[in-house]
Design a protein that fits this description.
The complex is a heterodimer of chains A (115) and B (118). In chain A, the strands form two sheets. In chain A, strands 2, 4, 5, 6, 9, 10 and 11 form a seven-stranded mixed beta sheet that branches. Chain A is mostly beta strands. Chain A is globular and about 40 Å long. In chain A, 38% of the residues are buried. Chain B is mainly beta. In chain B, the strands form three sheets. In chain B, strands 2, 5, 6, 10, 11 and 12 form a six-stranded mixed beta sheet that branches. Chain B has a four-stranded antiparallel beta sheet with strand order 3-9-8-7, with no helix packed on it. Chain B is globular. The model of chain B has no long low-confidence stretch (mean pLDDT 91). The chains are: A mainly beta (115), B mainly beta (118). The interface between A and B is medium-sized, with 31 and 28 residues.
Chain lengths: 115, 118
């Protein structure tokens, strides 16, 4: 158990809908990262937050947005869903926003299926 | 741009034997970090081992060791005394320069599926 929690574990929805994925980082970790794992794209970095502020953006679509709240939990919002958004979405956390080591620990993931 | 290459889509090993999973990387940065993660069929990503580009010694964590050859830009994972529970996907990943928040993302390879047989 990495200490990172994600809810829900599974999510099935229809095209055009909007969903929210939730992540709670390990106790004491200030950085949260979101990754998407799909069959055709592999594991891709989406976005990073540190102590409530956006730090880095990767291949995140404009239909997707995220935020980190004062209690450090984070939410990833996916809207106008398409079939291709079906994937496993991971949240990871680390203690700092930079530096050597600073290993990222992953949550169990949310498997999103868009029908 | 940083790139991770894992050329072995699948590997087979017998229980109790050692296995090496290959990983090569490409970067123009002097400072970087290399990671290995394990993904069992249940889906979670489990951190295994980390090697910093300036670390002189190869990293070891229990049965896992990282064979770091900087000149060859390789970071192979060695699993000693394989166990049935080691059957999983293994991902090599790289993180960019420390000190720059824009490079904290991990870039992953395509993974190697390891099957351990009795």
């Amino acid at each position: 158990d990495s200490g990172v929690t994600q809810t829900p574990k599974h999510l099935i929805t229809a095209t055009g809908q909007r969903v929210t994925l939730r992540c709670s980082p390990r106790s004491g970790d200030l950085s949260v990262y979101w990754y998407q794992q799909s069959l055709d794209q592999g594991l891709q970095f989406l976005i990073q937050y540190y102590n409530g502020e956006e730090r880095a953006k990767g291949n995140i679509l404009e239909r997707f947005s995220a935020q980190q709240f004062p209690d450090l939990h984070s939410e990833l919002n996916l809207s106008s869903l398409e079939l291709g958004d079906s994937a496993l979405y991971f949240c990871a956390s680390s203690a700092r926003d930079r530096g050597t080591g600073n290993e990222q620990f992953f949550g169990p993931g949310t498997r999103l299926t868009v029908l | 741009a940083q790139k991770i290459t894992q050329t072995q889509p699948g590997m087979f090993v017998q229980e109790k034997e050692a296995v090496t999973l290959d990983c090569t990387y490409d970067t123009s940065d002097q400072s970087y970090g290399l990671f290995w993660y394990k993904q069992p069929s249940s889906g979670e990503m489990i951190f295994l081992i980390y090697q910093g580009s300036y670390d002189e010694q190869n990293a070891t964590e229990g049965r896992y060791s990282l064979n770091f050859q900087k000149a060859r830009k390789s970071a192979n994972l060695v699993i000693s005394a394989s166990q049935l529970g080691d059957s999983a996907m293994y991902f090599c990943a790289m993180r960019g320069p420390s000190g720059n928040t824009g490079f904290q993302k991990l870039v992953f390879g395509t993974g190697t599926r390891l099957l351990v047989s009795p």
